Amino acid sequence: MSLCSTPAPPPRFSLLDDVIVLTDAAARSEDPAKAVQALANGLRGVLSGPLDLPGWLLETQAEGHARRELYRSREHGYEVVAITWAPGQDSTVHDHGDTWGVEAVLRGRLEVIDYRVRGQQRALSELHECGRHELAPGGVIGLLPPQDLHQCRNPSTDEIAVSLHVYGRHLQHVKRYTRVEGDLYRPERVMLETV
Fold first, then answer.
1. Is the pLDDT reported for residue 5 higher than 60?
2. Residues 7/195, Cβ–Cβ less than 8 Å
3. Cα(81)–Cα(193) distance, rounded to whole angstroms?
4. What is the model's pLDDT at position 36?
5. How far apart are CA 139 and CA 69, in angstroms?
6. What digits encode the pLDDT tens for the residues 75-96?
7. What is the largest CA-CA distance in the chain?
8. Whole-model pTM?
9. Which of 12, 93, 155, 183 has its CA at 20 to 30 Å from residue 127's CA atom?
10. Which pLDDT score, from 0 to 100, does residue 1 have?
11. For residue 22, what are the CA distances in angstroms to 15, 38, 44, 71?
12. CATH architecture group of domain 14-191
């Protein structure tokens, strides 16, 4: 994750159009929990069958997962992002910038490890693992701050994974946690990179 200019969004495709319709409806809710629930339920329906993903969405990067902004709503302010994970790629432990979100797997599998902040020791945060999910294609999870701290990983040794992320607002910065030792992590606010 580093500073990078925002490129023009890639071409739209039919699944993205469905996601936009569902998110427009969910984003009308004043209650983030209701928006997350409505969108998660809608995505489970849309993602229940086989998906035809464009080839450019399967392109990986050797230096880390490829984060692509697919759409940003002018009316509601939400953002739709796809992340392409080469085999074995992962993220650091991170939050989602104090906004709600929904994440879904479009292809492959994604292991998601949830964390909670147990305490602070000067500039370090003490984190503990509090849940683990393995999401298959069509698997969906919701994110509501402050219970949105997690790490994602493609557990496969030979298959690309693609995940879809919808955030309640444009997500430019997150807090990333880097392990120092044991359960102690150094938090750092970072700007997200988009390819």
1. no
2. yes
3. 12
4. 97
5. 20
6. 999 999 999 999 999 999 999 9
7. 49
8. 0.91
9. 155
10. 44
11. 11, 8, 11, 13
12. Sandwich (2.60)
